[in-house]
Amino acid sequence: MFNEIANELIMGMDKSFASCHASHLAVLPSGDMLAVWFAGSKEGADDSAIWCSGRTGGNWSQPVKIAAGVEEPCWNPVLMNLPGGELLLFYKIGRLIKEWRTLYKISKDEGRTWSEASELVPGDRGGRGPVRNKVVVLSDGTWIAPASAEDGIWTSFADRSQDQGLTWRRSEDIGIAGIDRSDIHAVKSEIPVSEQSFYGRGVIQPSVWESQPCQVHMLMRSSEGFIHRSDSQDGGVHWSAAYPTIVPNNNSGMDVVRMDDGTLVLCCNPVGTNWGPRTPLVLMVSSDNGLTWVEEVVLEEEEGEFSYPAIIARDDHIYLTYTWNRVNIAFREFSRISK
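Above: the chain's sequence. Below: its structure in token form.
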């Protein structure tokens, strides 16, 4: 069970962009919050940049632009807390998803200022590092960045770093065996996604957790009506083929976090239609490492788009942000109540 502590919209009416999406968040060493997202005239437009807002004492600061391309869009920012108190920001840049470059910046002052951008894996195209969800540090210190590629057949992979992000090695692709794209052009949707994504099929945008040392798992967004899963027995080097879970999925982003006691908390749209409505948005809980799930909280249930959640945990608290009708970013905080 959860007790709600905060339910807020980050922005007021005076924002300087028309559309915002794909948020991420971090708890700062001071206990304050930081949220990031991409925003511009529309998804994929050349003016789409990375924006940021901080929360202190229950109030969010005026959003500021912290990264932008030169006549090409930015996408999918991801924050990571580093051991020394620094913040690492990953984000994508490029018009074509299959040719994305992954850039990163570092902040030493809780997001007030940022370093110049550097390329995560110089020369690599298609999106290295985290594609949308958080990097997980395994018990042996390995970083696992949940990643994916979109070029017709969608596949996921784990990008691994054993030197705190200096170098990266990707796993083999993780896909759905025997997937067929022959009927994908029959799909209809009102969701304002990039047309590049609309005709893809498979699994993308994974979210990762470690259940025991070297036992790593991922849940993936899919085009097949259900969240899919893959498992690794060797710290993310090798993975099983993707297989469906019992949780419906509308081919929209989701995120999962493992709490200290092993409980998994999943935020998703439990709608089993490819490119289906991005409402309701719920929290689901699993006490058996993701084999079964129970719906705990309905975050949003009215008509609209409530999507692309990012969820993190600290002690017995969970924090999340998500897209609110493409015009704002919502922030929620809950504490867990022991039964």
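The chain has one domain: 2-176+193-336.
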